[in-house]
Amino acid sequence: MKNRFAQTVNVFAVSVFVFVLISCSDPEKKTIPKSYTVEIKAMQFLPAELTLQKGDTVRFVNQDMLVHNVTEEKTKAWGSQPLATGDSYKMVVTESSDYYCSLHPVMKGKLVVE
Ligand SMILES: [Cu+2]
After folding, report:
1. Distance, CA 83 to ligand 1 centroid (Å)?
2. What mean pLDDT do residues 5-29 have?
3. How far is the CA of 108 from the centre of ligand 1 (A)?
4. Which of 15, 70, 85, 109 is least enclosed by beta carbons within 10 angstroms?
5. Cα-to-centroid distance, 70 and ligand 1 (Å)
6. pTM tops 0.70, yes or no
7. Which CATH class is domain 35-113?
């Protein structure tokens, strides 16, 4: 009787182990956050439109001669300090957004979360 109980516990333990193993090796469920770079050059965000996943990181690097910033366009929900040449601003993306440089409003970019 005791043996049978031990056997049941063993089967259960093995099942849990196998389940954990399968869930961990499922490539669909395992999304590693990626990092992207948007360069600021010649009064432009490059690339101007970036498609990514929620949780990915974007780093904006100012490689222009002028000071720029990165500001969420509609609600100003997020934004960087003024970025001098060589400065960068890093953020984790949670939702799609349009952004621009508030110092030069013609400079626009877009983050698209899939
Ligand atoms: Cu600017």
Report:
1. 9
2. 62
3. 9
4. 15
5. 8
6. yes
7. mainly beta
